[in-house]
Amino acid sequence: SQQGEEDPQALSIQEGENATMNCSYKTSINNLQWYRQNSGRGLVHLILIRSNEREKHSGRLRVTLDTSKKSSSLLITASRAADTASYFCVGPGFQKLVFGTGTRLLVSP
Amino acid sequence: EAGVAQSPRYKIIEKRQSVAFWCNPISGHATLYWYQQILGQGPKLLIQFQNNGVVDDSQLPKDRFSAERLKGVDSTLKIQPAKLEDSAVYLCASSYWDSLNTEAFFGQGTRLTVV
């Protein structure tokens, strides 16, 4: 399967805390993308990390990639209520965008 | 830059009726995707177009679902006849070339309720 599997399935934290979610995949990838989905803005691309990169930052987001372990992690620092959403890792291997079930993040004020 | 446009936003139909969804991708985007997202699940890829050719339709229930991409731009997804289990949000997305190196942009979706 080309889809990523996110862990945990659900995560509940307080505002200001950090949130970490993980992704494992089975096939080789050229890059791995993270997407966010909430009721307000729909499904939105967050960040893309290439297979030759180990870490990437974008604002409060930090993504790591370990191709030897076929895993990635997304860290959201200083979380806000607006970060409440489902997060998906998407590992295209062959010109596909295949989504897993995602991590549902709830950030409480 | 205008986003991916989808219509209608909501649709309620009775089972065995037919329904069609329309998608206008971002200008210049060669790749267009249709996804089905059932409540509580991740989006499931139904069909992927590259320009007006089909790249992947392995998960499209072809006995009832059909899709076309007109002149490599707009696309329509049709369900005929609809079943109760087709109740879902149908998402359209587009990307510049393919998913290897570029992000996909998603529309707001069409929420279909089959009663």
Give structural notes:
The complex is a heterodimer of chains A (109) and B (115). Chain A has 109 residues and is mostly beta strands. Chain A has a single domain, classed as Immunoglobulins (Immunoglobulin-like), CATH 2.60.40.10. In chain A, 0% of the residues lie in helices and 54% in strands. Chain A is built from no helices and ten strands. Chain A has a five-stranded antiparallel sheet, with no helix packed on it. A five-stranded mixed sheet of chain A has the order 2-10-9-4-5, with no helix packed on it. In chain A, strand 7 (61-66) and strand 8 form a beta hairpin. Chain A starts with a strand and ends with a strand. Chain B has 115 residues and is mostly beta strands. Chain B has one domain (14-108): Sandwich (Immunoglobulin-like). Chain B is 0% helix and 49% strand. Chain B is built from no helices and eleven strands. Chain B has strands at 5-7, 10-13, 19-24, 31-37, 44-50, 53-56, 65-69, 75-79, 88-95, 105-106, 110-114. In chain B, strands 2, 4, 5, 6, 9, 10 and 11 form a seven-stranded mixed sheet that branches. A four-stranded antiparallel sheet of chain B has the order 1-3-8-7, with no helix packed on it. In chain B, strand 7 and strand 8 (75-79) form a beta hairpin. Chain B starts with a strand and ends with a strand. The relative contact order of chain B is 0.33. The mean pLDDT of chain B is 93. Chain A binds chain B through residues 3, 30-31, 33, 42-45, 48, 86, 88, 90, 92, 95-102, and chain B through 33, 35, 41-45, 48, 50, 55-56, 91, 93, 98-101, 103-109.
